[in-house]
Amino acid sequence: MDLMKGAADAAELLSGISPIIALTGAGISVESGIPPFRGPGGLWEKYDPDEYGHIDTFHKDPGRSWEMLIEIIEGSLSAGPNEAHLSLSRLEERGIIGPVITQNIDGLHQAAGSRDVLELHGNARSITCTGCGRREELQDLSAFSPRCGCGGWKRPDIVFFGEPLPEMVLNRALVNAEMARGIIVVGTSGIVSPAAMIPEIVRRNGGKVVEINPVSTIYTDSITDVFLESSATEGLVALEGYLMGQVA
Ligand code: APR
Q1: Could you identify the atom of ligand 1 that is nearest to the CA of residue 217?
Q2: What is the pTM of this model?
Q3: Ligand 1 atom nearest to CA at 53
Q4: What are the residue ranges spanned by the domains of the chain?
Q5: Which of 85, 122, 154, 198 could cross-link 81 (Cys pair, CB 3.0–4.6 Å)?
Q6: Domain 1-33+81-121+165-248 belongs to what architecture?
Q7: What's the CATH number of domain 35-78+122-158, 3.10.20.600, 3.40.50.1820, 3.30.70.20, 3.30.1600.10?
């Protein structure tokens, strides 16, 4: 489908309904230079997620986990928000969308100005010592060490495989999904639950689903009403134009 036609269809589907939420995944940050987890060039091609992404490895051998963690944090700190992040921020500003529920740990939605961001998997810039509990917000890695002065190992405040999601954040995301009449799903493979359930909850309650992704996902032929086969920036900027009435 032609992108502008698809964006017009998606805007027509979403116009006049409220609340609309967004669910984002790693794909929205690809154009900021942060690789996705799955697919070509994905982080899980380089690091085995069952090993490096699991909390058991961090407990057994924190230094091994930090081989990957430092790469993730470096990527987050050196990246800036792209037009897709900014588009969601503008849509929130205009009251067209409510919370952005994200699986991403890069903090780019907040950097783009989004105010109501639900970080289901935490934030890699926030670091806590597992020994003394001291917390720090990373701005750069120049003076950073994964070892604390107390001798303990630090960890980013993210959710490893094998860990529960932050309960308050997850509850808020599920409540918003239950109330949503529409959802814009951007840049997620839809593989990892409970985040992957969010669009399904919206759809089950009769809400409308717009999906933006260069390739189809498990949602596309099952719950997606309008699929914008595009990058996050192209798809969101086109959709925003119609939703904001900027495109006739
Ligand atoms: N624009 C939009 N989407 C894109 C782009 C782009 N430029 N490039 C890639 N994508 C899509 C891919 O097609 C894929 O569907 O982004 C998605 C990325 O999928 P994943 O790498 O699986 O990322 P995500 O869905 O966020 O993973 C969920 O899995 O490993 C865990 O905790 C990790 O939060 C992560 C979770």
Answers
A1: 15
A2: 0.97
A3: 30
A4: 1-33+81-121+165-248, 35-78+122-158
A5: 85
A6: 3-Layer(aba) Sandwich (3.40)
A7: 3.30.1600.10
Q: Whose CA is nearest to atom 28 of ligand 1?
A: 192
Q: What is the pLDDT of residues 199-224, one digit of tens each?
A: 999 999 999 999 999 999 999 999 99
Residue 9 pLDDT exceeds 80: yes
CA of 44, closest atom in ligand 1: 30
Task: Please list the residues that pair with 183 across neighbouring strands.
Answer: 21, 209
Crossing angle between the packed helical segments 3-14 and 232-243, to the nearest 10 degrees? 50
What is the C-alpha separation between 186 and 189, in angstroms, rounded?
9
39 CB under 6 A from ligand 1?
Answer: yes
Q: Is 99 in the pocket of ligand 1 (CB under 6 A)?
A: no
Q: Specify the 3-state DSSP secondary structure of 144.
A: coil
Q: pLDDT per residue over 135-185, tens digit each?
A: 999 999 999 999 999 999 999 999 999 999 999 999 999 999 999 999 999
**CB of 215 closer than 6 A to ligand 1?**
yes
Q: Compute, in angstroms, the gap from residue 230 CA to the centroid of ligand 1.
A: 13
Residues assigned a catalytic role: 121
Pairing of strands 100-102, 117-119: parallel
The two structure tokens encoding residue 205: 């309650």
Per residue in 51-104, pLDDT (tens digit) is 999 999 999 999 999 999 999 999 999 999 999 999 999 999 999 999 999 999
Q: Looking at the chain, how many residues does it have?
A: 248
